[in-house]
Structures are given as C-alpha cells and as structure tokens.
Amino acid sequence: MTLKPLRRRRIPYFPGVAAVLGPGLVWAGLSQGSGELIWWPYMVAKYGISFLGWLLIFSAIQVWYNQEIGRYTLATGEGIITGLFRLDRRVGWATVILISMIFTWVGGYAGAAASAIYSLTNYPPGSPVEGVRLWSLIVVLITMIVVLIGPSVYRVIEAIESFAAVTAMGGLLAVALISPDVARALPDYLTGFTQFNWPPFPGWEMEDYKTWVTLMAYTGAGGIWNLAYSYWVREKGYGQARHVGRIRSPLTGAPEAMPESGYDFVVETEEDREEWRRWVNWLWTDNLIGVSLNTFTIILTTLLTYSILVPRGVTLPRDYELVEIQSQWMETLYGVYGRVAFLAIAFLFLFDIYLVAGDLFSRFMAETSYVVVREEYGDDPHLLPKLILILSIPTALATMGSEVLFHFRMLKPLSPPVSYVILIFYLVMIPSIIYLAARRGIGYTKTYYLSWIAYTSIAIPQIMLSQPGGLILLTGAANTLAMAFLMTCTTILSYRVLPRIHGAGTLVRQRRLNLAIEIVIAIAMWIVTIWFVAIELDWMSRPHMDM
Fold first, then answer.
1. Angle between the 54-76 and 468-492 helix axes, to the nearest 10 degrees?
2. 263 - beta bridge partners?
3. Which pick of 61, 83, 212, 435 has the fewest CB atoms within 10 Å?
4. Does 433 map to a domain?
5. Which domain range does residue 511 map to?
6. Three-state SS at 152
7. Which helix (H) or strand (E) holds 87?
C-alpha cells in the first residue's frame, strides 16, 4: 500500500495518570452491554454454571487483542484502519467489508435500550412491540442531536461510558453485598470457575450456538468493536497521537486539522527509550482496568442471576423484553424503586453501545475515505462502481443470508425483509459518502458527521422491521469471525510491519512471549469460528418441517 510515510516528531513525555485515564473506562462501558447484561445471564439461567470457567479465559483474550490495537496508535498516532491498510491492501478492504456487514445490524442496541425505557414507563399502552419501536426512534434521534451539539464527540462518549461503567458496577455490587440470596448461593457459584464444559449442554437448543459464540466475542467489546480502543487512545493523546487532531463538532467546537499520516520517532537518548516504556506500561494498565471492570461486572450479573432468578424459575429474556427479567435482581430487595433503578442502569448499558457504534462506524468511514481512498483511488474514474462492488454487494448478500437463517432457525419471519431495506441504503448511501469524500476533498470531520447521518438512517428501518435480540446475536456471531481475522492481522502488524515502517525499529513491537500468546489466541479463535460454521452448515443441510 502506497500511503504517505510516517512523519517524524519526538515522543511526548508521559503526562501522568490523571491526564491519560479514560480509554479503559470507556472500553468497559462499551463492553458492559449485550454479553454482560443479557447473554451471560441468559446462559447461566438456562444451563447453570458448568461452563463458567471459560469466563476468565474469554476475558483474558481481550487484553492481548486490545494491546496490539492500542500499540499501533500509540506508536504512530494513526487509527488502526490505516495500519491494516499499511499491512496489506486486501487486509484493509476485508476489514472495511466486515465493518460494513456488522454495522448493518447495530439498530438492535437502540431497540434493546428502548426496551428498558418501555419497561420503566409502560408507555405507550398496548403492544410492547410498538412501545419499544417508539422509544427506539426517540433514542436514535436524541443520540444524533447529542453528537451534533457536543463540542468534542470523544468527551461526550467518555463521560457517558465512564458514568455507565462505574454506576452499573456499583449498583450491581450493592445488590450482591446486601442480598441474603447471594450470600447463600456464593460458595456453590464459585465452583463454576473450575468447570470448563463446552456445548451442547443437557437440554441444549440449536439456536444457542449463536449465543455461545456471542459470549466468546462479547466477553468484552469483541471483534470489530475492540478497534474503537485505537480511536479513544488517539483522542486522549497517547504517545504519538498527541501530535494529531481531534474530531470537533461543526456546530459548537473549534475545528482541528486531521493529518493524512501519523508520526514516528527515533531513539536519540535513553530518555526516549524510557518514555516509550512508560507509555506502553500505561497502555497495559489502562487496558487491564477496562477488562477487569468488565469481567467483574459479568461475575456480578451471573451471580445475581444464579442466586436470585434461577431459584425463582423465572422466564428467560427474549425478543422485545431483553432487560425486563433482569430488573428482578434489584426488585427483590428494593421493590419498585430497585426495579426503576435497574432499568435506568440497563438503559445506560445499552444506549452507550448504540452511541459508540455510531462513533466507530463514522470514524471508520471517515478514515477509509480521507486517508486511504482519497490517497490511493481519488483519480479513478470507476471509483463509485468499485466501492459498490467492494462494500454493498457482500454486505447485502451477508444480510440476506442471515435473514434466511433467522426465518427458519428463530421462526421469526420478517415482512418486508430488513435486508432489502438495508440493501438500498448500502447501494446508495455508504459508497456515495466515501466516493464524495474522496473525489470532492471533503474533510475527515465532515465525512464523520455525514456517516453519522447514514448510520441513523440505517438504524431506523432496522428498528421498525426486526427484533433487537436477534440483531445483537447476529453481530455477536459475525464478530467471532472478525476477532479471529483481526487478532491475526494486528499480531502481524505489530511484530512485522510496525518495526519496518517506524523509526524506532524493533523497540515498538511486542515481546516474544506476548507474540506467542497472541498466536495461540488467534489459532483458538479460528478453530471456534470453523466449528461454529460447520455446525451452521450441518444444520442447514438437514430437512426441516418449517421450511
């Protein structure tokens, strides 16, 4: 890939913890959503704790994955998408295709957040489906307004995510400490961490294979979502990212120039070497803060489910009532006030994912068009049809394929199919934004906000035509594949490519022990992906009465 080479500036001094604390908390807030709040409790309620030992392993995977994503931005100031294009043009485009596919389904998080509001208000009266859809539209529009008027998008996200992460964990911890049910169940629950059973479990249902792989990806952010860590590290000014611009609101913020390439540094003194080590050590610390908070949250949600909900024989969260069941955690202790408090926490859990998804999608589109397409393909007269071929057609086919699986596996036919609506948006809107940004020289920030409008436009028809639970499971299954692919690519990027393009050479790559761990993780993720695909293909090959 012939992107512009890195420019050179001295590595900044580490400014102290207070100045750089944030990205890990934001990552924890993002992660405390579908897997932590919905699917881990769902699986424990349905199948018990015989697989709980995998929780710590699935969480540990996120640490090494995040570290290499953050390392590239720390060393260069560039977003991880640019790094993947520097690794190989095909890797970069494959990542963009995966992003396009996965982000066609993110409307499910707006719907899940809206389910908390509907459960809280029971308004409008009547059908929960219509109530959730109404609140979903309100969530989508409010999010767009917040993004437009916030002077710094990252600071808005950091404030919301940090508050959500700390408040949610604190509230759940308070319930766990006070509840006598938790005290009685705790010794038995802890034995689950010594058990590593793999599905199928007794009473296993085929649809839960998708839930299981969702747990693997979403014991943390998962797959494509982890790439957001790169952009939060950049916005916070880690290492060489201190030298690049930030996204500011066109309405209330002061514009900053976004560079077309990042910065490297050379080791001129031992102090430079020590400064790099301080930054890397802090990256590990920040990363571990996020993963540890998230892991502790999952422990709390599964403990509360096992001790409070399972003995009562509650029904399981489904469809448009994803968080109603979990509100009984706090309702058993605090009555209606506890239920209200939990549903408010649940709304934060899920709304912040939708917010971050829009930010991440828009950054991907802006970086792809401003840094990559404009530089490499800006003069290509066939650029628009090529973008449609690269982005729209694979995304539409994948979406329609998932609809077929949903129709028969989940027994929830969609009419009209959401895939046809999304196909229209992708054939017209996304390639057009990238094309116009590259050919007309639209800047990074303007492209970012145009992409937000596209993101909102995609979410609305999803909300009206599909159920949030199914959409979230689709993103989880897709992100398992994305995680295997991207773990492989970021490992190679850090160890082979980064030292080759960087003035500091081998200083900026990971140690060999970390490399070995990352290789093992990547191989394991590929094995699980192949296992899941084999199960899906076998299921589809069988005759089904409902077909």
1. 60
2. 7
3. 435
4. no
5. 7-360+478-541
6. strand
7. helix 80-87
CA distance 211 to 203: 15
Q: How many helices (H) and strands (E) does the chain have?
A: 22, 2
pLDDT for the residue 353: 77
Residue 190's pLDDT is 95
Count: domains in the chain: 1
At 262, which CATH number?
Answer: 1.20.1740
Determine the pLDDT at residue 357: 81
Q: How far is it, in rounded angstroms, from Cα 250 to Cα 233? A: 22
Express the helix, strand and coil content of the chain in percent, nearest 5 each: 75, 0, 25
pLDDT value for 391: 74
In this prediction the pTM is 0.86
Asked whether residue 325 is assigned to any structural domain, the reply reads yes
- Reported residue count of the chain is 547
* pLDDT the model gives residue 140: 84
Residue 452, in any domain of the structure: no
- In sequence order, the 6+-apart residues with CB closer than 8 A to the CB of 357 are 103, 106, 109, 225, 455
Instruction: Indicate whether 92 belongs to any domain.
Output: yes
Give the integer Cα–Cα distance in Å for 46 and 456: 35
**Beta bridge mates, 7:** 263
Low-confidence ranges of the chain (pLDDT < 70): 1-2, 33-37, 104-109, 111-112, 314-330, 332-334, 349, 378, 392-427, 461-476, 539-547
Cα distance between residue 91 and residue 102, in whole Å = 16
CA angle 44, 49, 55 (to 5 degrees): 85
